[in-house]
Amino acid sequence: MRMPRAILVLTLAASVAGCSDIGLRNLEPPGKGPDEFSVLPVKPLTQPQDYAFLPAPTPGGENLTDPHPKADAVVALGGSEAALNPNAPIPSGDAALVTASSRYGVPANTRQVTTQEDVDFRKRKSRWTRLRLFPVDRYAQAYEREAINANNANEAARQRGIETPSAPPLE
């Protein structure tokens, strides 16, 4: 009589474990430590050139020392902060790139379409992976066919006569 109970308990445990849907990635933190990404460093305080031309204070608004991570990243990579404005004109250095990439037209809802395609793809891939007794990271498994093999791409470029930088040895 003990064996059927054990089988029943294991079956119930597997059924309950299969009901969880954490998506493809298990992004739970491994411990109860601080979240280092929740703290943004502020810029150092500086003295203005002329105290007569200070902007009026805006309660609840921005401060000169407030961090702007996107703008800082764009500037660090050689761009300009003006490029973050969606209504800004295209810089002359990027005109050829924009013309070449939009030669077949640019649909207005590209982001929504690719988001929906990715949701459908992940739903198809996770259909049979919901039954699991232990948390498993399924992200790499789901996108395995979509990933680019760097060594194959490097070799294909070399065979076409394109100079490539040195690459690490094959694993």
Short description:
The chain is mostly helical. It is built from six helices and no strands.
Q: What is the percent of helical residues?
A: 25-40%
Mean pLDDT: 77
Counting DSSP H or I runs of 4 or more residues, the number of helices is 6
Distance between the termini: 53 Å
Instruction: Note the beta-strand portion.
Output: under 5%
| Helix/strand order | HHHHHH
Q: Please mark out the parts with pLDDT under 50 across 5 or more consecutive residues, or reply none.
A: none
Major sheet, described briefly?
A: none
User: How would you describe the oligomerization state of the chains in this entry?
Assistant: single chain
- Specify the structural class: mainly alpha
The shape is extended
What do you see in this structure?
It contains six helices and no strands. With 171 residues, the protein is mainly alpha-helical. Among the domains are: 44 residues, no CATH class; 57 residues, no CATH class. The termini are far apart.
Give a quick set of tags describing it:
single chain, mainly alpha, 36% helix, 0% strand, 171 residues, extended, 6 helices
Write the layout of secondary structure elements.
Blueprint: H1 2-18, H2 69-76, H3 95-101, H4 110-125, H5 139-142, H6 150-159
